[in-house]
Design a protein that fits this description.
alpha+beta, 4-stranded antiparallel β-sheet, Alpha-Beta Plaits, single chain, 38% strand
């Protein structure tokens, strides 16, 4: 089992929960950690300062492409960040639980 994290952001709790629930129902991820934070970024030639919901999804590398494509399909942003973070190590118990959820 090769676990990865996938990071993305949403404009609000409603859209984050809606997309995350769909990803979980499709068994594209086993868990999501969501947190509100301040985001500053360039958009349309100006610096924006807004609240966003950051989401870290836990999944397996074989789910990456379908997960990425599904996020793109469901995401409210025109250009969402969808970042894959490869894990060097993960405890065995958690890895086994992930495998049971995703493939069991």
């Amino acid at each position: 089992m090769e676990a990865i994290l996938v990071y993305t952001t949403f404009p609000n709790w409603e859209s984050a929960k809606k997309v995350v629930k769909e990803l979980l129902e499709r068994k594209l991820a086993v868990c999501a950690n969501m947190r509100e934070h301040e985001a500053m970024y360039w958009w349309d030639g100006e610096i924006r300062d807004e609240k966003e919901i950051g989401v870290i999804l836990k999944t397996e590398v074989s789910k990456w492409k379908e997960l990425r494509d599904t996020i793109r399909e469901l995401h409210p942003y025109e250009i969402p960040v969808i970042a894959r973070i490869d894990l060097d190590k993960l405890n065995r118990e958690y890895s086994e639980w992930m495998a049971r959820v995703l493939f069991g």
